[in-house]
Amino acid sequence: MRQTTSSAETAVVYMSMGQLTGVRNLTGAKYLTEEQRKMAGVDVAVILEMAKEISDEIIKEYKGFIEEFTEAHYSKVSTGECIIPAKQFEEELNAWIEKQDKRIKRKLEKLESDIYKKIEK
């Protein structure tokens, strides 16, 4: 949580990605006025809440994959072989998606679309 909050604060304070703070050069927390601190705090809270909502949706819709992946790789935990290369993970995810019926595939496509809409908002 600390890392997530820090990333959201960096996005708002240093990269001007907050809805309220907008595109400004805030140059870091120590130079913010009290009003800017409050706005930045609201922006950080919004980003964190959106991230939670999105991650909850991903976990819900990909629950079957998470269970299958965990079962397939559970025996590797604590063996030194538990790091799965990104390419292998992506291949396993894509194979799982291909096995799903059209209804599930549509839900996953809608989820992706919804996530992009939330991010844009």
Overview of the molecule:
It is a single chain. The relative contact order is 0.09. The model has no long low-confidence stretch (mean pLDDT 88). By secondary structure, the protein is mainly α. Helix 2 (34-61) packs antiparallel against helix 5. It has two domains: 1-51, no CATH class; 62-121, no CATH class. It has five helices and no strands. It has helices spanning 2-13, 34-61, 63-73, 86-99, 102-120. Helix content is 69%, strand content 0%.
- Radius of gyration based on Cα positions: 19 Å
List the helices and strands in order. HHHHH
Helix content range of the residues, please? 55-70%
Strand content: under 5%
- Spans of 5+ residues with little confidence (pLDDT < 50)? none
The number of helical elements comes to 5
Average pLDDT for all residues = 88
- N-to-C terminal Cα separation, in Å? 23 Å
Largest sheet: none
The secondary-structure class comes to mainly alpha
Would you count the extended β strands for me?
Answer: 0
Principal-axes geometry comes out as elongated
Number of domains: 2
